[in-house]
Design a protein that fits this description.
Structural class: alpha/beta
Number of domains: 2
Number of helices: 9
CATH topology of the largest domain: Spore Coat Polysaccharide Biosynthesis Protein SpsA, Chain A
Number of strands: 10
Distance between the termini: 51 Å
Length: 282
């Protein structure tokens, strides 16, 4: 059985995170917590409950260092502590009992992992296929939450790109893995319960996001477009079309239209001037 650790990224979590962690923590050998919550904002109760999980350690806290750097810290700790695979989880993500059991059973049944860099679940229940001849299908890119990362392969490929901070971090990571000869596999029969970030609100079925989030989305898309279009042209083109529609909906139905336009423009300009990492405002 491969040695598996897990990492959970925390950012002003609610107590609901405790029940989410319970769905997978008892089958991993170690649980790393990366607390991106600033200014000691976690309640004493929540801290105590988080630290009561078995084999848990906090490897960063009290500053938002972004998704990429947080995962990289966990990868380095997992390597140092002798783990083969790292389960990457968001605070809002969790497995159903059967889903987690099946996910692990399928993973163990592979036996020969070869050049596999990532094993991922489905992130949308409606696309799950319970009766398939092939459990795993190769992907160009997957979301990061719920993934099993081969620690050695991930580090060999350069790990996560910290220039991106948040948004497109998962896609860039997958592209780099493939450039280094590793495969991305998705289990077609298992899904992760997953939320795509925290919206400001909704308009019908449209989730509305803060203006600063749009900054990262555009800036980082332009970054991966420039860096990876030659190797992954279809994905980059489809991603661009999706984001164009997404931005239009945010501007049409959001309550921060002027600020959103400013942040989109700032994202474009920062990309042109190769300004990346965390946005510090102007």
């Amino acid at each position: 059985m491969p040695k598996i650790a897990a990492v959970v990224l925390l950012f002003y979590p609610s107590e609901e995170v405790l029940s989410h962690i319970e769905t997978y923590c008892h089958e991993v050998m170690h649980l790393y917590l990366v607390d991106n919550t600033e200014e000691h904002a976690l309640s004493v109760f929540l801290k105590e409950k988080l630290l009561s999980f078995p084999n848990v350690s906090v490897i960063h806290q009290y500053e938002n260092i972004g998704i990429a750097k947080a995962f990289n810290l966990a990868l380095k700790h997992a390597k140092k502590d002798g783990y083969d695979w790292l389960l990457t989880m968001d605070q809002d993500s969790y497995f159903g009992k059967k889903e987690w059991s099946d996910y692990l059973a399928h993973f163990v049944s592979l036996r020969q992992y070869g050049k596999v860099g990532v094993i991922a679940p489905m992130h949308n229940r409606k696309f799950v296929e319970h009766s398939v001849e092939t459990l795993y299908v190769k992907q160009e890119a997957v979301l990061s939450s719920g993934n099993l990362l081969h620690v050695e392969h991930a580090l060999n490929a350069g790990a996560f790109d910290e220039a991106l901070f948040i948004d497109e971090v998962d896609h860039a990571f997958c592209f780099e893995l493939q450039r280094h000869g590793y495969d991305i596999l998705r289990d077609q029969t298992v899904y992760l319960n997953h939320e795509l970030g925290t919206p400001l609100g909704t308009h019908g079925n449209i989730r509305l996001y803060p203006a600063q989030r749009l900054y990262y989305m555009l800036r980082n898309y332009l970054y991966i477009q420039k860096k990876y279009t030659d190797d992954f042209p279809d994905f980059i083109q489809n991603r661009g079309r999706y984001l164009m529609k997404f931005f239009m909906k945010q501007l049409l139905f959001g309550n921060e239209r002027i600020l959103s336009i400013r942040m989109l423009w700032q994202g474009y300009m920062d990309h042109r001037h190769s300004i990346y990492g965390k946005y510090h405002g102007k």
